[in-house]
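Possible race condition, two jobs.
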Amino acid sequence: MNGLVVTLLRLLNGLLTLAFLPLLYSIYRKTQRRFYLYWGAGFLLYGVNIIIRTGLIYFNTSSLGAEIFAFMFSLSGLTFIITGIGDLIHRARTMFWASLSIPLFIIVLYYTTQSYLLGLLIASLPWVFTCISLLIIRVRYSSSLDLFVVGWAILTFSNVGSLFGVMELTYVELMAIFGKVVILFGVLYPRFTYLADDLRRFLIAGVPQQYLDQRGDKFVLYNSKSGKRSIEIKWIKEKIADNSLKDIRTIIISTYDLISPTDLMVNTNEDGNMYFVRMIQGGKSLLHDFGERIVVINDDMNDLDILFTDIINFTNERKITAQIILYNLSALIHTHGWKRVYTFLLSKISLLKASNVYLYSLYYPKTHELESEIAKFEKLADSVIEI
C-alpha cells in the first residue's frame, strides 16, 4: 500500500513539474524574458526524469543503467534551470558553463575514487548549487527571490534526504510537491525578473503589477481635436500610470518646454517610471547615458535622431520596453519643416518595428496650412486616434 502511495505521489510530482513548461512559456511570450524559456525547458527535462523513475518503480524494472539514464535528464534540466538563474543577472553563459562542469566533475570523481559516499555528495551538488546561487542573488541584489529560495531549499532538502536514505519516500515526494508549488508562486510574481534591470537602469521603474499583454501599434498619432491642455496632460498621466503597472518606461520628449515635468507628477512610484527630455535651443548636444531622469538636448533633428537610436539600442540590450511620447509633432514640423521631420520618422520606423519601443505623438491638424503635408504623417503612422 505504501509503495502505491509513493508511486501516485511521484506521478503527481512529475505531472506538476511538466506543467511548469506551458505556464512559463505563456509568460515568456508576454515578457520575452529568456529566464522563463530556460526554466520551462529545465522543468520539462526534470519532469521527464521523475516520470521515468515512476515507471521504473511501478514496473519494478530498476537497474543502474536506467537510473543513470533518468539522472541524466535531471542533470540536463538543472543545467537549463541554473542557466536561467544566470540570465536574471546577465550571467547566463557563465552559469551555463558552471552547470556543465558539475556532471563532468561527477564522472571524473566516480572513475577516480569509486567512493559511494563521495558519489552521493556529488550527486546532491546540482540542487545545493542552485539553492546557494538563488540565495546569493537574493542577498546581494535584495531581489524578490524569497519564494524561490524557500522553495528550492525544500527541494534540496528532500532530494538530499532521498539520496542518503534518511527520509521516507512518501515525505520526500510530499516535500518536493510543496517546494515546487512555492516556486511556482514565485515564478508567477512579475517583479523578480526585473532585478537585473535594477542594477543599471536608465529609468528607475515602479513595482510591476501586470504583464504586457500585446505589442500593439509601434507608431501612433493622437489628434488633439479639442486642443485643451488639461485633456492632453490627463491623457499623458494615464499613460504613465498604466505603464507603471507593467514596468514600461515612459519617455516624454517636450519640444520647446510646451510641457514640464511638474505638469506630469502623479505619485512617487509612477514618477519613478517617467523619464523627461527637454528639447530646446542651447541644450546638450549629445546624450551619453541615461543616469538622469530629466535631461536637456539641443533643438536639432540630428540630436533627436541620436536620442532615439540610444533609446532603441539600450532597450534592446536590456530587453526592456519603453514608450516615447512626443509632445508635440506639430511644433517640430513648424520649426524644422515637414520634409526634415518626415525623413527622420521614416528612417526610424523599421527600427521601432524591430524593437520594444513605441512612439506616440500628439499633433494638431488645424495648425497646418497644407492638409497634404500632414496626411503624409497620418499614412506613415500605424493608427490615428482622437483624444
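Job #2 (started ~2 s after job #1):
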Amino acid sequence: MSNLLTKFKHAPVTVKEVKMNIFAPYEKAEKEALDSVIYEDDSVTVELKGFKLNQIHRDILDIATYYGDNKLEYMSEDNRASRLFSLYEVQKRLNYKACRNNKWLDSKFSEMQQSVIRITDKKEGNWIQFNIIEVAMFSKKQGKYALVLSEHYMKFFENEISIGYKPYLDQILNLSPQGRALARYIISFSNDFKIGLDKAMHKIGIKADGSSQNWRYNRNKILADRHKLKALNIVITKQTTDGRRKDDYQIEYKLLDEMNIYHPQKTLFD
C-alpha cells in the first residue's frame, strides 16, 4: 500500500481543515450562499459552496476513517482512500441509539458531497477546489456504507500536515459541538502553548460580531466541558475574580502523548 494511504490511515485529518474553520463549531445543517468565505488571513482565502460543514460531518468522517475497514484500498491503484463501515458504528460512537434508519446518515453524506471547498493562495494566486467525498454507497445486503475520498482531496491531503487522534476520539465525541471544535483546534498544534479562550473561540469560527448573548452561550458551552477538556490536556483557568474583564479565561495545552503528526516533504504549490 502506498505511503499516502498509510499516512491517511494513521493521521487522516489535515491541520488546515481544523484551523481554517472548514467544520463549523455547531451541529445544525445550514445551506450557504455560493462563494461564502469561511476563513481568510494574510496568505489564504477559504471559500465554501453548498452546505456549511459542521462538527457532525467531521465526527462522521472521523468514525469512518478511524474505525472503518480499508480493504477496498487493496483493490485500488489510484491512491484513493476508502472505508467500509456500518450505521451501527456511527450510532455507537455518537451515542445516537435512537436513530434506527439510514436517512439521517444519508443526508449527511449528501451535504458533504454538495460542499465544495476552494483554498486560494493569495500571494501567488494558486488555488485548489475539491469535495471531500467523491462516492457514497450503501449495500442493504451487507448492511455497510462505502465512502471513497475524492482524487483532488487526496492531492490536497498529501501535501498538508496531518494529525491522528484516534486514542482520544471517544473523549472528543463526548463534548459539546463547541467543545469538539475547540479540542480539535487545540490538539492540532504540535507543541505546548497558551491562548486566551475568547481568542480561541474566534479562531474556531465563533465570532464576536453577533449578539453578546449568543457569544456568552457558546462560551458557557465550552466552559461546561472544562473537566472533559482537561482529560485531553486542555486546561481552562479563570485569571481573576473581576467579572468585568472580557477575556478572563486562559487555555493551556500540553502535547498529548499518543498524537500522530505527519509533515509533508513539500506543499501543494511548490
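The chain has two domains: 3-163, 168-253.
Logs attached separately.
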